[in-house]
Amino acid sequence: MTFPVPQPGIVAYDATVTDSELDIEAMLATYSGGASAYRDVWAPVLLRFARGLVDRMSLAGAGRILEIGCGPGLLLPALADAAPAAQIVGGDRTGDMLALAPASFDRVICDAMSMPFPSATFDAVLMPFMLFHVPSDTAAIAEVARILRPSGAIGLAVWGGRRDPRAFEVWGECFPPPPATIPPRSDHTRMDTPDKVRRLMERGSLTVQDIWVEPLAHVWSPDGFIRLQLEVFPDEPLGTGGAINADQLHAVRERLRALPAEDMTDNCEVIRAIATAPGP
Prior knowledge:
The chain is of the alpha/beta class and about 280 residues long. The protein has helices at about 25-35, 35-55, 75-80, 95-100, 135-145, 165-175, 195-205, 220-230, 245-255; strands at about 65-70, 85-90, 105-110, 120-130, 150-165, 205-220, 265-275. The protein has a domain at about 25-160 and about 180-215 and about 265-275: Rossmann fold, CATH 3.40.50.150. Helices cover about 35% and strands about 20% of the residues. Helix 2 (about 35-55) crosses helix 8 and helix 6 (about 165-175) packs antiparallel against helix 9 (about 245-255). It is globular. Mean pLDDT is about 85; it is low at about 1-15.
């Protein structure tokens, strides 16, 4: 079975099914406009944790694997290495992200709450760092359970606790943030502990096989941090609030360069989990 790339277009979420009020259009605009920067600056940071998820899943005998929220597709080659005989499919809501993914893989514009696949299609589904962008995580997990074959596996990664580095304070001092976006573009509070993740899986009739937490400590370079703020996640709570001229950019770069490494380090917890669908 082949899933060709569809014509441009995105299926809207069903606004009647929601656990959180999220600004989906703003989220899509952010990831579409910042696709190249996301691939260069942030996706490589996340890739190690997504690969670690793949390493714990038994994928060698899989026939079809789907990654939901594949973005620029950095994980797709690792999935192909783990399951050499499998058809690997990358799904994402944004065509600009999918356009950056390797053309050797099937890529599909894909709504996690209403996926364009028959039931019992995939042996494994991966959802690294995307579930918190979905208005209803329960609906998304139910969809995963639907498209998984009996005893198929799901692997996901979400954020736990976080401590922002001093660099964010410096940015906010230089560029006062805009008014908070209402509703927000993501909701981490629904799944920011292992117990919450376990309950979410169990509500979807999935059996949890493994949950583990690992710290992420990423030291930003000044230029990488600036690109994150201006291109990957512009107008977030610590955003620009307006245009930035060359003198302002030089000033904030110099302030960031003066910070010690610990003040440029993102400290986060990554929660990963693997669960399986009911058997035949």
